[in-house]
Target: Fumarate reductase flavoprotein subunit
Amino acid sequence: MLPASTDVLVIGGGNAGMCAAIAAREAGADVVLLEHANKSMRGGNSRHTRDHRVMHDEPTATMVESYSEEEFWQDLLRVTGGNTNEHLARMMIRKSRELLDWLSARGVRYQQALSGTLSLTRTNAFYLGGGKAVLNAEYLTAERLGVEIFYDSQVTAIDITDGHATSATVVNRGFTYTINARAIVVASGGFQANEQWMKEVWGDAADNFCIRGTPYNRGVVLKDLLSKGADPVGDPSQCHAVAVDARGPRYDGGIVTRLDCVCFSIVVNNLGRRFYDEGEDFWPKRYAIWGRLLAQQPDQIGYAILDSKVLHHFMPSVFPSISADSIEELARKIGIDEQALAHTVSEYNHAVVDGSFDKAVLDNCSTRSLDPPKSHWALKLDTPPYFAYPMKPGITFTYLGLKVNDEARVLFGDGSPSDNVFATGEVMAGNILGQGYCAGTGMTLGSVFGRIAGEHAACCRN
Model:
């Protein structure tokens, strides 16, 4: 049976919610955490993660050199195009410096970055065992502290007046309950798994999207709070969207279906035409735009075309590449007009400027008089066999969310902060991620604002 009341009610059992629950409990509050999924699927998108981006002034046990506040900020500013709240972003960056110690003290372990991990050894801390290991550690810590955790529990509505919440309606294993709470922390994610809502934004193109993570992020609590006066933030069409293998599952493919070969290939649509600069910038700063680019192509599909020279420069998909001894044969295998693809490859090869290839820097291997250009890592496709990976948009999470202040309080109506409703994680990511993405920022955001939300929510019990 779910309890009738609690000090702090946390909605959502991913990393953001767990950090909030742990922080609130350590501050002395009674805490109930509701996870929509069953135990085997707990943790939302955090299950599929492997690192977070952290500011650090000197080398750590698992990261090299340093990564300053200003450099982190400039990276974020560049990928968002300025569509970010600088005050909240810089606060997140500064507090990220504390995460290694804070999470380590609660059971999370780290390791050196593996090969093929987007060249993030200086900026990102990698989890030993990945996202599931992080969640296991957080759940064990929360249980040891006395957080009450309930699975198969979907919150359908929050009773709220003028920004003040009193209770939540919960469906647990088919039964409906009401839980009274002195404070509520919303950590229930975006709406990417809500097919109807996605079609309202994207139209029929949404039918061809893969949802990389949990099928439980349907935006029910988000929509409920927006309908009750919570201030929105973010564009509903903006999202963390990457290129995933088109042969992957509709839901929950996770990181193993992601394709990181784009910057070493050319990418064509099903007409055999290139449509964007594959080498525009380092992959960690550009990989999360390729889902949106694919969403804008006919039938929302594309193909990465590469040759034998670059096969070992990236982490491959869980699915094998499609190979052929000629470009024409490869075109037949992937269902593209042979002449169209051969023309695109020939035009590209003719435009390649010889340079010194170096995947670790913005090298001088580029194209000349080609539209779109390839700015870096441009090598001729001339060494058979040739390879292709079919790609679809893979949506990780949406950026429409709840506007918050620096105490993670949800703002209502005229921008007034709630006295007892807080938000963390993907449901408020749009405050910082108006567009674009830097690898590892999502887990950083959830951890930092989870701690903040939990600590301030605990104060509401007095």
Notes: DSSP finds eleven helices and 21 strands in the chain.
